[in-house]
């Protein structure tokens, strides 16, 4: 898959989101709008845990650890780690919102050809990504989700090679605990 544009932001450490971290800072209302937008695009099938996008202009608003869901998971359309299906040659805007909280709960996402299972240090096992990872998004600023601020970031690419890939959080231990899903280009 070919890159278009590139990564925004910079490298991260282990701390909560603060203004100027290198990406967007959203309040609770804006985070809810991000989730609603993600839930309104693509077609979800809860039975197969799949979200399918039919158009060539695709925006995926993925959430890392949405409140009310299990730790070390991604959410889209209310589904956990769904298979995401996009058409070949789609112009994909792949956005991530980190709603997790606490020490070492920064998250990122990359798209790789390497299937699970993943070891503790997944980034050493994954090989070259087909879509480079975003910088790590810091965790939310407060335990109270309605008073917190959240980190969001995205990249853009053309899904020009049909096949099955995996979107993965390469932060140590996260993928080994289940933070990944299938990404299909057809």
Topology:
Blueprint: E1 2-4, E2 24-27, H1 28-40, E3 43-45, E4 50-52, E5 57-64, E6 74-76, E7 79-80, E8 83-86, E9 90-98, E10 110-112, E11 149-159, E12 163-168, E13 180-185
Parallel strand pairs: 4-8, 5-9, 8-13
Antiparallel strand pairs: 1-11, 2-11, 3-4, 5-6, 6-7, 9-11, 10-12, 12-13
Description:
By secondary structure, the chain is mostly beta strands. 7% of the residues lie in helices and 35% in strands. It has one helix at residues 28-40; strands spanning 2-4, 24-27, 43-45, 50-52, 57-64, 74-76, 79-80, 83-86, 90-98, 110-112, 149-159, 163-168, 180-185. Strands 1, 2, 5, 6, 7, 9 and 11 form a 7-stranded mixed β-sheet that branches. Strands 3-4-8-13-12-10 form a 6-stranded mixed β-sheet, with no helix packed on it. β6 and β7 (79-80) form a beta hairpin. Residues 2-12 have low confidence and may be disordered.
